[in-house]
Design brief:
binds coenzyme A; 2-enoyl-CoA Hydratase, Chain A, domain 1; two-stranded parallel ribbon; 248 residues; 2 domains; 46% helix; 8 strands; alpha/beta; globular
Protein backbone atom coordinates (compact mmCIF):
# COMPACT_ATOMS: atom_id res chain seq x y z
CA UNK A 1 0.00 0.00 0.00
CA UNK A 2 1.74 3.24 -1.09
CA UNK A 3 1.94 6.13 1.38
CA UNK A 4 2.96 9.72 0.72
CA UNK A 5 4.65 9.65 4.14
CA UNK A 6 7.06 6.81 3.34
CA UNK A 7 9.33 7.72 0.45
CA UNK A 8 11.57 5.15 -1.20
CA UNK A 9 14.50 5.88 -3.52
CA UNK A 10 16.84 3.32 -5.07
CA UNK A 11 20.37 4.32 -6.00
CA UNK A 12 23.61 2.31 -6.21
CA UNK A 13 21.73 -0.80 -4.97
CA UNK A 14 20.83 1.00 -1.72
CA UNK A 15 17.12 1.42 -1.08
CA UNK A 16 16.57 4.57 1.00
CA UNK A 17 13.34 4.50 3.01
CA UNK A 18 12.42 7.91 4.41
CA UNK A 19 9.79 8.72 7.02
CA UNK A 20 8.28 12.01 5.89
CA UNK A 21 5.35 13.39 7.85
CA UNK A 22 6.95 16.41 9.42
CA UNK A 23 3.69 18.14 10.39
CA UNK A 24 3.09 15.29 12.86
CA UNK A 25 6.74 14.74 13.78
CA UNK A 26 6.91 11.70 11.46
CA UNK A 27 4.48 9.83 13.79
CA UNK A 28 3.76 6.46 12.17
CA UNK A 29 0.19 5.66 11.13
CA UNK A 30 -1.28 2.28 10.21
CA UNK A 31 -0.98 3.26 6.55
CA UNK A 32 2.72 4.08 7.05
CA UNK A 33 3.37 0.74 8.80
CA UNK A 34 1.80 -1.03 5.81
CA UNK A 35 4.02 0.96 3.41
CA UNK A 36 7.12 0.23 5.51
CA UNK A 37 6.25 -3.48 5.65
CA UNK A 38 5.76 -3.57 1.88
CA UNK A 39 9.03 -1.72 1.22
CA UNK A 40 11.02 -4.20 3.35
CA UNK A 41 9.18 -7.26 1.98
CA UNK A 42 9.83 -6.18 -1.62
CA UNK A 43 13.45 -5.20 -0.90
CA UNK A 44 14.08 -8.63 0.63
CA UNK A 45 13.25 -10.25 -2.73
CA UNK A 46 14.58 -7.59 -5.14
CA UNK A 47 17.90 -8.60 -6.72
CA UNK A 48 18.65 -4.90 -7.36
CA UNK A 49 18.60 -4.05 -3.64
CA UNK A 50 21.70 -4.95 -1.62
CA UNK A 51 21.14 -2.77 1.48
CA UNK A 52 18.54 -0.51 3.05
CA UNK A 53 19.08 2.97 4.48
CA UNK A 54 16.29 3.90 6.90
CA UNK A 55 16.05 7.58 7.78
CA UNK A 56 14.02 10.65 8.64
CA UNK A 57 15.57 14.12 8.56
CA UNK A 58 18.62 15.32 10.49
CA UNK A 59 16.41 16.96 13.17
CA UNK A 60 13.65 14.33 13.25
CA UNK A 61 13.49 10.54 13.07
CA UNK A 62 10.01 9.81 14.40
CA UNK A 63 7.76 10.59 17.38
CA UNK A 64 6.76 6.91 17.31
CA UNK A 65 3.37 5.39 16.89
CA UNK A 66 0.63 7.85 15.95
CA UNK A 67 -1.20 8.33 19.24
CA UNK A 68 -4.43 9.33 17.47
CA UNK A 69 -4.39 5.88 15.83
CA UNK A 70 -4.20 4.28 19.28
CA UNK A 71 -7.54 5.96 20.11
CA UNK A 72 -9.30 5.44 16.79
CA UNK A 73 -11.34 2.19 16.78
CA UNK A 74 -10.97 1.84 12.98
CA UNK A 75 -7.20 2.12 13.01
CA UNK A 76 -6.59 0.39 16.33
CA UNK A 77 -5.40 -2.70 14.58
CA UNK A 78 -1.79 -3.60 15.19
CA UNK A 79 -1.45 -6.02 12.26
CA UNK A 80 0.39 -3.55 10.02
CA UNK A 81 2.81 -2.65 12.81
CA UNK A 82 3.47 -6.33 13.53
CA UNK A 83 3.88 -7.02 9.81
CA UNK A 84 6.48 -4.21 9.62
CA UNK A 85 8.30 -5.51 12.71
CA UNK A 86 8.41 -9.04 11.26
CA UNK A 87 9.69 -7.67 7.94
CA UNK A 88 12.51 -5.64 9.52
CA UNK A 89 13.40 -8.31 12.11
CA UNK A 90 13.76 -11.00 9.44
CA UNK A 91 15.19 -8.78 6.70
CA UNK A 92 18.03 -10.75 5.08
CA UNK A 93 20.15 -7.82 3.81
CA UNK A 94 21.94 -5.15 5.84
CA UNK A 95 19.95 -2.21 7.23
CA UNK A 96 21.62 1.06 8.21
CA UNK A 97 19.63 3.67 10.16
CA UNK A 98 20.37 7.41 10.19
CA UNK A 99 18.81 8.98 13.27
CA UNK A 100 18.53 12.59 14.41
CA UNK A 101 16.17 14.53 16.70
CA UNK A 102 13.31 12.70 18.42
CA UNK A 103 13.32 8.89 18.05
CA UNK A 104 10.52 7.85 20.37
CA UNK A 105 8.84 4.52 21.13
CA UNK A 106 9.03 2.38 18.02
CA UNK A 107 11.38 5.09 16.69
CA UNK A 108 13.89 3.60 19.13
CA UNK A 109 12.81 -0.06 19.17
CA UNK A 110 12.90 -0.46 15.37
CA UNK A 111 16.61 0.41 15.59
CA UNK A 112 17.23 -2.76 17.63
CA UNK A 113 16.57 -4.69 14.39
CA UNK A 114 18.95 -2.61 12.25
CA UNK A 115 22.55 -3.66 11.65
CA UNK A 116 24.27 -0.27 11.87
CA UNK A 117 22.86 2.83 13.56
CA UNK A 118 24.33 6.30 13.05
CA UNK A 119 22.92 8.89 15.48
CA UNK A 120 23.42 12.64 15.70
CA UNK A 121 24.51 14.63 18.74
CA UNK A 122 21.00 16.08 18.93
CA UNK A 123 19.19 12.72 18.93
CA UNK A 124 16.67 12.19 21.72
CA UNK A 125 15.70 8.55 22.20
CA UNK A 126 12.83 7.64 24.49
CA UNK A 127 11.02 4.45 25.45
CA UNK A 128 7.98 5.98 27.19
CA UNK A 129 5.78 2.86 27.14
CA UNK A 130 5.22 2.53 30.90
CA UNK A 131 4.66 6.30 31.26
CA UNK A 132 1.90 5.93 28.64
CA UNK A 133 0.32 2.99 30.46
CA UNK A 134 1.72 0.52 27.91
CA UNK A 135 4.49 -2.09 27.93
CA UNK A 136 7.60 -2.63 25.74
CA UNK A 137 7.04 -3.65 22.10
CA UNK A 138 8.99 -4.58 19.00
CA UNK A 139 10.91 -7.31 20.82
CA UNK A 140 12.54 -4.66 23.02
CA UNK A 141 11.87 -6.52 26.29
CA UNK A 142 14.24 -9.24 25.00
CA UNK A 143 16.64 -7.27 22.80
CA UNK A 144 17.44 -4.34 25.11
CA UNK A 145 18.40 -6.48 28.15
CA UNK A 146 20.54 -8.63 25.78
CA UNK A 147 22.37 -5.57 24.48
CA UNK A 148 22.44 -3.34 27.54
CA UNK A 149 22.09 -5.73 30.49
CA UNK A 150 19.09 -5.77 32.80
CA UNK A 151 19.91 -2.68 34.85
CA UNK A 152 20.38 -0.23 31.97
CA UNK A 153 17.41 -1.77 30.11
CA UNK A 154 15.28 -1.32 33.24
CA UNK A 155 16.39 2.31 33.54
CA UNK A 156 15.49 3.06 29.92
CA UNK A 157 12.29 0.99 29.69
CA UNK A 158 10.82 1.46 33.15
CA UNK A 159 11.69 5.13 33.82
CA UNK A 160 11.02 6.03 30.17
CA UNK A 161 13.04 9.29 30.26
CA UNK A 162 14.66 10.73 27.09
CA UNK A 163 18.33 9.87 26.56
CA UNK A 164 21.00 10.92 24.11
CA UNK A 165 23.01 9.15 21.41
CA UNK A 166 25.97 8.53 23.74
CA UNK A 167 23.68 6.64 26.11
CA UNK A 168 22.29 4.78 23.09
CA UNK A 169 25.85 3.74 22.31
CA UNK A 170 26.36 2.64 25.91
CA UNK A 171 23.13 0.63 25.63
CA UNK A 172 24.59 -1.13 22.58
CA UNK A 173 22.30 -0.08 19.74
CA UNK A 174 24.16 2.95 18.34
CA UNK A 175 27.36 2.37 16.35
CA UNK A 176 28.51 5.94 16.02
CA UNK A 177 27.60 9.42 17.16
CA UNK A 178 28.24 12.19 14.63
CA UNK A 179 27.39 15.88 14.11
CA UNK A 180 23.74 16.29 13.14
CA UNK A 181 24.80 17.76 9.80
CA UNK A 182 26.61 14.56 8.77
CA UNK A 183 24.18 11.84 9.97
CA UNK A 184 22.75 11.05 6.56
CA UNK A 185 25.98 11.17 4.55
CA UNK A 186 27.79 8.98 7.14
CA UNK A 187 24.97 6.42 7.12
CA UNK A 188 24.70 6.49 3.33
CA UNK A 189 28.43 5.86 2.94
CA UNK A 190 28.15 2.85 5.27
CA UNK A 191 25.11 1.49 3.40
CA UNK A 192 27.00 1.85 0.12
CA UNK A 193 30.00 -0.03 1.53
CA UNK A 194 27.74 -2.85 2.74
CA UNK A 195 25.94 -2.95 -0.62
CA UNK A 196 29.27 -3.44 -2.40
CA UNK A 197 30.25 -6.51 -0.35
CA UNK A 198 29.83 -9.98 -1.95
CA UNK A 199 26.09 -10.69 -1.78
CA UNK A 200 26.03 -14.34 -0.70
CA UNK A 201 28.74 -13.77 1.93
CA UNK A 202 26.77 -10.80 3.28
CA UNK A 203 23.43 -12.63 3.43
CA UNK A 204 24.96 -15.72 5.04
CA UNK A 205 26.90 -13.67 7.59
CA UNK A 206 23.87 -11.60 8.62
CA UNK A 207 21.79 -14.78 9.04
CA UNK A 208 24.53 -16.26 11.27
CA UNK A 209 24.70 -13.09 13.38
CA UNK A 210 20.93 -13.16 13.85
CA UNK A 211 20.85 -16.77 15.07
CA UNK A 212 19.98 -17.36 18.72
CA UNK A 213 22.38 -15.39 20.92
CA UNK A 214 22.08 -18.23 23.46
CA UNK A 215 24.21 -20.56 21.29
CA UNK A 216 27.41 -21.93 22.77
CA UNK A 217 30.66 -21.24 20.90
CA UNK A 218 30.76 -24.93 19.87
CA UNK A 219 27.24 -24.68 18.43
CA UNK A 220 28.25 -21.51 16.56
CA UNK A 221 31.30 -23.27 15.06
CA UNK A 222 29.01 -26.07 13.84
CA UNK A 223 26.52 -23.54 12.42
CA UNK A 224 29.21 -21.57 10.60
CA UNK A 225 31.33 -24.28 9.08
CA UNK A 226 28.99 -25.65 6.35
CA UNK A 227 28.44 -22.10 5.13
CA UNK A 228 32.16 -21.29 5.28
CA UNK A 229 32.94 -24.39 3.20
CA UNK A 230 30.21 -23.59 0.68
CA UNK A 231 31.33 -19.96 0.32
CA UNK A 232 34.98 -21.03 -0.03
CA UNK A 233 33.97 -22.91 -3.21
CA UNK A 234 31.89 -20.06 -4.63
CA UNK A 235 33.02 -18.34 -7.82
CA UNK A 236 32.76 -14.98 -6.07
CA UNK A 237 35.18 -15.93 -3.28
CA UNK A 238 37.56 -17.78 -5.61
CA UNK A 239 37.80 -14.72 -7.88
CA UNK A 240 38.62 -12.57 -4.81
CA UNK A 241 41.35 -15.03 -3.63
CA UNK A 242 42.84 -15.14 -7.16
CA UNK A 243 42.81 -11.36 -7.51
CA UNK A 244 44.71 -11.10 -4.20
CA UNK A 245 47.33 -13.65 -5.24
CA UNK A 246 47.83 -11.95 -8.62
CA UNK A 247 47.86 -8.41 -7.24
CA UNK A 248 51.55 -7.69 -7.97
N1 LIG B 1 1.22 10.81 17.43
C1 LIG B 1 0.39 11.69 16.84
N2 LIG B 1 0.70 12.99 16.69
C2 LIG B 1 1.89 13.40 17.14
C3 LIG B 1 2.79 12.54 17.77
C4 LIG B 1 2.42 11.18 17.91
N3 LIG B 1 3.22 10.25 18.43
N4 LIG B 1 3.88 13.23 18.14
C5 LIG B 1 3.69 14.49 17.74
N5 LIG B 1 2.47 14.61 17.15
C6 LIG B 1 1.86 15.81 16.58
C7 LIG B 1 1.37 16.76 17.65
O1 LIG B 1 0.10 16.38 18.14
C8 LIG B 1 1.36 18.08 16.90
O2 LIG B 1 0.21 18.09 16.08
P1 LIG B 1 -0.63 19.48 15.89
O3 LIG B 1 0.34 20.47 15.37
O4 LIG B 1 -1.70 19.11 14.91
O5 LIG B 1 -1.14 19.81 17.25
C9 LIG B 1 2.57 17.97 15.98
O6 LIG B 1 2.83 16.56 15.87
C10 LIG B 1 3.79 18.64 16.52
O7 LIG B 1 4.07 18.09 17.81
P2 LIG B 1 4.49 19.00 19.07
O8 LIG B 1 4.28 18.18 20.31
O9 LIG B 1 3.79 20.32 19.00
O10 LIG B 1 6.05 19.22 18.77
P3 LIG B 1 7.23 19.46 19.82
O11 LIG B 1 8.41 19.83 19.00
O12 LIG B 1 6.80 20.36 20.91
O13 LIG B 1 7.48 18.00 20.50
C11 LIG B 1 7.80 15.60 20.52
C12 LIG B 1 7.93 16.93 19.70
C13 LIG B 1 8.09 14.48 19.53
C14 LIG B 1 8.81 15.61 21.65
C15 LIG B 1 6.37 15.50 21.08
O14 LIG B 1 5.44 15.74 20.05
C16 LIG B 1 6.03 14.16 21.70
O15 LIG B 1 6.43 13.87 22.82
N6 LIG B 1 5.23 13.33 20.98
C17 LIG B 1 4.67 12.10 21.52
C18 LIG B 1 5.70 10.99 21.55
C19 LIG B 1 5.09 9.69 22.03
O16 LIG B 1 4.66 9.57 23.17
N7 LIG B 1 5.03 8.71 21.13
C20 LIG B 1 4.39 7.44 21.35
C21 LIG B 1 5.38 6.37 21.67
S1 LIG B 1 4.61 4.80 21.93
Amino acid sequence: MPSTHVVTTLSDRVLAIELLRREKKNAITTEMYAALAEAFEEAAEAPGVAAVLLHGQSDLFTAGNDLADFLSPAARETRSAIRFLHAIASFPKPVVAAVGGPAIGIGTTMLFHCDLVVAGEGTRFQLPFVKLGLCPEGGSSALLPQMAGHRLAAELLLLGEPFDAHKGREAGFVNMVVADSSILETARALALKLAQQPADAMRTSKALLKRSPGRTSLEAIEDEYPHFERLMQSQEARDIFRAFLQRK
